[in-house]
Write a structure and sequence with these properties.
Layout (H helix, E strand, L loop, with lengths): L2 H34 L4 H8 L4 H29 L7 H22 L2 H12 L2
Helix pairs in contact: 1-3, 1-4, 1-5, 3-4, 3-5
């Protein structure tokens, strides 16, 4: 496999791992939300200790945008390089990575951190 294609594969895998970790964090926050429904006063306690859920979510939203932009950028680079590999296995590999980048972009967009933040705000106002 061409070194350029290997670099694209490695970059994609790195971004995919970041996306998976972001999703795991999102799922963890959903679990915390469920637990805080039974003790909403803990939200203000977390804020007092400097562990504000709003700050965590804001940081995750920044990460989400960066990951999404990186997938878009990677897909663009792949599109430019595909013409160098018109009919060989590298071209198929690049085509698959470009498709996977679009799938992961859609996946990242489906992580609804804004709604999660609204849910936590509602709990803190109880």
């Amino acid at each position: 496999m061409d070194i350029t294609v290997k670099k694209f594969v490695l970059r994609y895998e790195t971004l995919a791992n970041k996306a998976i970790k972001l999703n795991q964090s999102y799922l963890s926050l959903l679990k915390i939300y469920q637990e805080l429904n039974f003790a909403p006063d803990l939200v203000s306690e977390l804020d007092k200790t400097g562990n504000s859920l709003s700050k965590v979510i804001a940081s995750m939203q920044k990460d989400q945008k960066v990951i999404q932009n990186n997938f878009t950028h990677l897909a663009g680079l792949i599109a430019k390089f595909q013409s160098y590999f018109p009919t060989n296995p590298e071209a198929e590999q690049l085509k698959a990575i470009a498709h996977d980048c679009q799938v992961m972009t859609n996946f990242i967009q489906s992580i609804n951190l804004a709604d999660l933040q609204k849910m936590f705000i509602k709990i803190s106002n109880l």
